[in-house]
Design a protein that fits this description.
Layout (H helix, E strand, L loop, with lengths): L1 E4 L11 H4 L16 E6 L3 H10 L7 E4 L9 H4 L16 E2 L12 E2 L21 H9 L7 H11 E3 L5 H6 L15 E3 L8 H11 L15 E4 L4 E2 L4 E2 L2 H6 L8 E4 L3 E11 L2 E2 L42 E3 L7 E9 L7 E11 L2 H11 L2 E2 L1 H6 L6 E2 L11 E3 L15 H4 L1 H14 L27 E5 L8 H10 L12 H18 L7 E5 L5 E5 L7 E3 L10 E3 L6 H18 L2 H4 L14 H11 E3 L41 H6 L1
Parallel strand pairs: 1-15, 2-3, 2-16, 3-11, 6-7, 17-18
Antiparallel strand pairs: 1-14, 4-5, 8-20, 9-10, 12-13, 12-15, 15-16, 19-22, 19-25, 20-21, 21-22, 23-24
Helix pairs in contact: 15-17
InterPro entries: FAD/NAD-bd_sf, GMC_OxRdtase, GMC_OxRdtase_N, GMC_OxRtase_C
Keywords: FAD, Flavoprotein, Signal
Cofactor: FAD
Length: about 675
């Protein structure tokens, strides 16, 4: 049994913001840091700001959140819905890419991740979708009490202020309904609907209904199958993005105990004590950068989330000492973090009196732990990193929703299209002027019945809200064959060679759960994303493929080697093939034929080989990587327990990815 605790390291650390980056206490960027902090949070994205905010609610606690990116400047490209997706690849993106995907076309793929105060909530598509109750119930079934739908729902409710759609006519037209019992009325995140609706979603839903897929009543009530018009994290008062920065930091920036520094890259977690291969080579228990100074007290450990730094889901008091079984390690203490603005700058250290909380995302959290000596022993040895804890699960079990774009342009010019914003300068300028004037759009429903002067306001409708989450048995006659193929696989057939037996055991258990749920008519196998201009993008919701995220250098400023290994398990490819074939059925329904679609990509006569070529060339991330710090037992390759103790709090703990747009779950943490 291993005990992870940390001594209180009272340090004299008054570093001006000129050396540390922008310090956003209030709006004074020149105020120095405190001498020490109770809690240090690494990563000021969604989860990082949520947990920092909650911890700092108690004024006697001091909290420091460290962000590698900068703070945005309330630019239109961030706040205005019309620009959704436009800032990907820009200054607020880590600009990561995968290793070459040889199972596809051999090319690398971009892997956008938010590098900004607020993280991915600054870049994402703003869709507010929780996922299905079955997803969370599956988490609990793996030995994680309190993580089922019933346990998670109160936190989802707490996070939001839900505003119903403003028009009964629109609600009826777009089948937008809601269950008040599952929505919040006083949470930080504003959840609402745009003031402008493209009518193509009506046709899509009607077509799918004809094919036996009923529209969901409320896509956030735990149901997870069928088409739905999902709400948006959009402030109904001004039709702007309601992101983590504007909801969990800006209103609380004047808290004297809540500090944020930006532009600072955490290079490692400081660990002391006897590690897996002897003494860990980190600073001794001292008070300043050189290891000299007083030490007193005892902290709660290297923990994250409900059982550590935030209130437990079940209301119990977390234990003071966190124990993990590992025969090679004992007597480790976490004392703080090391950070710097860039590779050439001097490294600074800051110490925590209670906890260090890692909320750096699925990719960077795994990288940071590996750089700190926590991870697969062979990997750390390869880069001469002193082993603190041999945890094979760190960086393994990577999974992601992957998508394939399609192009079926609608030729019925009587339907307004978002492409007009880029092809019709006059129309776009009128829409921009209206948005800038009053931040609203016309409360329209049947836009076809209105004249051109009344069809303004599309700048509020940036998100692809018309979605569908389709179960495999309801869309494919081949579902029995696909399920048989999945069931008969040996768990090692499509995993990385040479994995630790615990990782294989973990995937074996996951595969059984995935097969069971793939057969259900109430569980989504894939998603359709409707952009209202002729694209019905398809995305795998419960992938069988597993990838890796490993350091490729001991230099923390070098990105990790990200290998999602999309579609390496053939079940995922088979699901996408069936999804593309079902698109043809949708397009052939009378409501969709009214739009006059032209099937360009893939072509209407594409055979399976041609469909595979479309997939190989076009497959990309849907921006939801997870799983690299799995919430599983150690014998199943786990990294954190059901209380999220010891390692992490962010979405990297997810071991079975859910059928939703990932940031929603982080707001609920």
């Amino acid at each position: 049994m291993v005990t992870f605790t940390s001594a209180l390291l009272a340090v004299s650390l008054c570093l001006a913001s000129a050396a540390l980056g922008a310090h956003l206490h209030g709006r004074d960027i020149d105020e120095p840091l405190l001498e020490s902090y109770d809690y240090i949070v690494v990563g000021c994205g969604i989860s990082g700001l949520v947990v920092s905010n909650r911890l700092s609610e108690i004024s006697s606690r001091t909290v420091l959140c460290i962000e590698a990116g900068d703070a945005d400047h309330y630019e239109a490209i961030v706040q205005d819905p019309v620009y959704v997706g436009a800032d990907i690849g820009g200054i607020y993106d880590w600009d990561l890419e995968t290793v070459p995907q040889t199972q596809l076309d051999g090319s690398t793929r971009p892997m956008p991740q938010g590098k900004v105060l607020g993280g991915g909530s600054i870049l994402n598509a703003m869709c507010w979708n929780r996922g299905g109750s079955d997803d969370f119930d599956a988490w609990e079934a793996f030995g994680n009490p309190g993580w089922d739908w019933a346990g998670i729902l109160p936190y989802f409710i707490k996070s939001e202020t839900y505003t119903p759609v403003y028009s009964d006519e629109i609600a009826e037209e777009y089948s937008i309904h809601y269950n008040p019992a599952v929505h919040g009325s006083s949470g930080p995140v504003q959840v609402s609907y745009p003031k402008y609706f493209y009518p193509q979603s009506i046709n899509l839903f009607a077509g799918m209904n004809l094919l036996g897929l009923p529209t969901q009543f409320d896509p956030n009530d735990g149901t997870s199958a069928g088409p739905a018009f999902v709400p948006t994290d959009l402030d109904p008062n001004n039709q702007t993005r309601s992101d983590a920065r504007r909801t969990y930091f800006d209103p609380y920036a004047t808290r004297s105990n809540f500090h944020v520094i930006t532009g600072q890259h955490v290079t490692r977690v400081l660990i002391e004590g006897t590690g897996g291969s002897g003494e860990v080579d980190n600073p001794t228990s001292g008070g300043n950068d050189n290891g000299n100074g007083p030490a007193s007290g005892n902290n709660d450990g290297f923990g994250f989330g409900p059982g550590g730094s935030t209130p437990p889901l079940s209301g119990q008091t977390p234990p003071r000492f966190v124990r993990r079984q590992d025969p090679s390690t004992s007597n480790l203490r976490v004392s703080g973090v090391e950070f710097a603005p860039n590779a050439s700058a001097p490294r600074q250290t800051v110490y925590a009196t209670r906890e260090v909380i890692i909320a750096a995302g699925a990719l960077h959290s795994a990288q940071l732990l590996q750089l700190s000596g926590i991870g697969p022993e062979l990997l750390l040895n390869q880069y001469n990193i002193t082993l603190a804890l041999n945890l094979p699960g760190v960086g393994n079990n990577l999974q992601d929703h992957c998508l394939v774009g399609t192009f079926y342009p609608y030729n019925n010019a009587s339907y307004p299209s978002p492409t007009e914003l880029t092809t019709n300068t006059t129309y776009n300028l009128e829409a921009e002027e209206e948005y800038d004037t009053d931040k609203t759009g016309k409360q329209t429903c049947r836009l076809l019945a209105l004249d051109a002067a009344d069809i303004l306001g599309p700048w509020t409708a940036g998100s692809p809200n018309g979605l569908a989450f389709n179960p495999l048995p309801l869309i494919s006659n081949n579902s029995v064959i696909i399920l048989s193929n999945a069931s008969s696989q040996d768990p090692t057939d499509y995993l990385v060679a040479g994995l630790d037996p615990t990782i294989i055991a973990g995937f074996t258990a996951q595969k059984q759960s995935l097969v069971t749920r793939l057969a259900e008519t109430t569980v989504a196998a894939y998603e359709i994303i409707n952009n209202n201009a002729g694209s019905l993008t398809v995305s795998v919701m419960h992938p069988f493929s597993r990838g890796t995220c490993y350091i490729q250098s001991a230099d923390p400023f070098q990105p990790p080697a990200i290998d999602p290994r999309w579609l390496t398990n053939p079940v995922d490819r088979q699901v996408l093939i069936e999804a593309l074939l079902f698109n043809r059925q949708i397009l052939a329904t009378p409501p969709m034929l009214e739009l006059q679609p032209a099937q360009f990509v893939p072509p209407v006569d594409a055979d399976e080989d041609a469909l595979n070529q479309v997939i190989n060339n076009g497959l990309r991330t849907e921006f939801h990587p997870s799983g690299t710090l799995a919430m599983l037992p150690l014998e199943l390759g786990g990294v954190v327990d059901s209380h999220l103790r010891v390692w992490g709090m962010f979405c990297s703990i997810i071991f079975l990815i859910i059928n939703e747009w990932g940031p929603m779950t982080c707001f609920g943490d």
